[in-house]
Amino acid sequence: MNTRTFSADVDGKNVEFVVRSPSLGEQREGQKIYNQSFSDAVKAKAIVRARMDDLLEEQGLWDNVKQAELTRLQQEVLEGERTLAKGGIPLRQAREVAIDIKKSRASIRELIAVKTSLDNHSAEGQADNARFNYLVSVCLVYKNNNQPYYKSLEEYLSRSSETVAILAAQNLANMMYGLDNDYEANLAENKFLKKYKFVDDKLRFINKEGKLVDQDGRLIDENGRYINEEGDFVDKNGNRVDANGDYMLNPNLFWTTMEILLSKNPKLQKFQKFQRHQKFQKFQRHQKLLRKQSRHLQNNRQMKKIQHHNQIVSQSFLSKSPIAFLVIGLFL
């Protein structure tokens, strides 16, 4: 019996699960569910796949131009895979080929998204989904005792957004359609990129130092945001931004209107130079005046000191000589 195993966290505990192939009885029950769902969808006037292309053209959602574009993209993927398999080109060029393949695949998915969405709503699409949901609900079992994880289809549907349900659906889809769990990793372009260490185990682009980068080699963090060597947020061109993605302003980088005019007008530059010269001359005159005032003040202080000294000497002399007092009195 074909099986797939995986583990997931359930109520804080790591639990191992097995997705097994549906038994013959389960396949028959699944077909009954398909038929019933298809009948209900047709009665509800759901479109059938045979008319889907006509409806897409009627609604302007698909035409010959888009079909030609799809064919071209598919051809580019095939040619790119052949180029990588053949080799004989520089490693850098081969990296670009691998990236071009990834871009073409992404464009294909985007182009056919409208068809995929409409197909899911077709009668056959609804019936396929109903059968698949039933098979997931009965094929997921505990690894340790082989007992079903879900008690009913309704329980699975009510919990289909949980991690266990998502992993179970992925594993069962891979089993039914012949895919493996590492489908993306095993695509030709991803195998090449991983082999030559252009991507890590999660298929994220890295540089030679093992740091995360975008496909053009610009540094990014775990969330895909651009950063610089110091880990600061930047835009795709390397300009600093904050955590909200807003540019970080530096007032010193802005010019005033006069600075802008001066940068463009030689006459204004000459006038500004003249103004600076005038201010310098005024400053020099002011400094000269200050020095003159300072000298004058110093002279006044010295004169006062001399007068004071002479007064003291005179008083001393007169007090000691009465004759001198009389002589001096004759001149008064």
Describe the protein's architecture and organization.
The protein is mainly α and 332 residues long. The chain folds into two domains: 3-195, no CATH class; 258-330. The chain contains twelve helices and three strands. It has helices at 24-43, 52-58, 64-86, 91-111, 113-120, 123-139, 153-158, 163-176, 188-195, 257-264, 266-320, 322-330, and strands spanning 3-10, 13-20, 140-142. It has a three-stranded antiparallel sheet. A hairpin with a 2-residue loop joins β1 and β2 (13-20). α1 runs antiparallel to α6, α3 runs antiparallel to α4 and α6 (123-139) crosses α8 (163-176). Mean pLDDT is 84; it is low at 316-332.
Q: How are the SSEs placed, and which strands pair?
A:
Layout: E1 3-10, E2 13-20, H1 24-43, H2 52-58, H3 64-86, H4 91-111, H5 113-120, H6 123-139, E3 140-142, H7 153-158, H8 163-176, H9 188-195, H10 257-264, H11 266-320, H12 322-330
Antiparallel strand pairs: 1-2, 2-3
Helix pairs in contact: 1-6, 3-4, 4-9, 6-8, 10-11
